[in-house]
Design brief:
Number of strands: 11
Number of helices: 10
Shape: globular
Structural class: alpha+beta
Distance between the termini: 45 Å
Order of helices and strands: EEHHEHEEHEEHEEHHEHEHH
Largest sheet: 3 strands, mixed
Strand order of the largest sheet: 10-3-11
Radius of gyration: 20 Å
Length: 301
């Protein structure tokens, strides 16, 4: 939401859809609201992992993209990883690229700034709250995972995500599914590190416990105040994210949302759920289920 000149809050279409998606997901679990809404203290798992991307270090080599594709068995991109023309347009993660790097000509920076984009693995993920079938899980290790076998394709998660991270696999007509970065959860559980962090040739991506990454980030800002803006993006945004960022220019110049609340977005639906009749919040989920059922019949027919 943006604040208008008269001080009133203006609800944008995307914001409305996000609240509606969260409410629909929450309403689907009416009677078990504690499961759908955020915890009050955000303590989570104290040793959960996270990632720290230092945008002042990134050189836009896209090695992280290549490593991600290899680790996840994704196809080679249409534009080779060493082709710089890919920066002519801003990209979002897709079904064949769980992470992408974009280039920005930012004010105050003599050189281009490169930003890596992927799921930020929120502390209190709105995608999980919006999902009416609980296809999403916030793991004790930190990554937010998605179960394609549970998903029925409503795509509420895509609307609910404040970072536009989940992508939809439109190429698979028989098994459409949502896809996104998993922070290489399997590697983490095996004692390894995510592929992008392990492949970065300049050390722009650091893997570790989130609480330790915050200490590293704050220490860098303290020691090099002329190099960084005084903000660790992801420390508080939307209740905090597992993926943290340091930057030398204000984050809005790099398309980071700057209007996110410090508390989890799902908390915004608490009042909505209590004030709006169930029919207005549950019907989108029911229609989605009917649509999915009809789709399956047509495919089988």
């Amino acid at each position: 939401m943006d604040r208008k000149g008269d001080g009133k809050m203006e609800l944008k279409r995307r914001d409305f859809l996000r609240v509606a998606a969260l409410a629909a997901g929450g309403a689907a679990f009416l009677g078990r609201p504690a499961d759908a809404l955020a915890s009050p203290d955000l303590s989570g798992w104290p040793d959960r992992a996270g990632m720290l991307t230092d945008l002042t270090e990134c050189v836009g080599c896209r090695t992280c993209e290549s490593a991600c594709n290899a680790a996840n068995g994704l196809p080679a991109p249409d534009v080779p990883f060493d082709e710089k023309s890919v920066f002519d347009r801003k990209r979002r993660p897709t079904a064949s690229a769980y992470t992408v790097v974009n280039r920005y000509e930012a004010k105050g920076s003599a050189n281009p700034v490169y930003r890596k984009v992927q799921c930020n693995h929120c502390e209190e993920p709105s995608c999980a709250a919006a999902c009416p079938v609980r296809a999403y899980t916030k793991t004790p290790e930190g990554p937010v995972l998605y179960d394609k076998d549970v998903c029925f394709g409503c795509r509420y998660c895509m609307v609910a995500c404040p970072f536009y991270a989940p992508a939809y696999d439109y190429e698979s007509a028989l098994e459409p599914r949502v896809v996104k970065c998993t922070m290489c959860h399997g590697r983490i559980r095996a004692g390894g590190i995510p592929a992008c962090a392990g492949s970065c040739p300049v050390g722009a991506i650091t893997f570790g416990k989130r609480k330790e990454l915050l200490k590293i980030a704050r220490d860098r800002i303290r020691r090099f105040p002329d190099r960084y803006v005084e903000q660790v993006y992801g420390e508080y945004e939307a209740g905090g994210t597992g993926w943290l960022y340091l930057s030398g220019v204000p984050f809005p110049q790099l398309d980071f949302p700057d209007n996110l609340p410090k508390k989890p977005i799902v908390e915004n639906t608490k009042g909505f759920l209590s004030a709006v009749p169930l029919v207005f919040t549950l019907w989108p989920a029911l229609l989605g289920l009917c649509y999915a059922a009809n789709g399956n019949k047509e495919e089988k027919g």
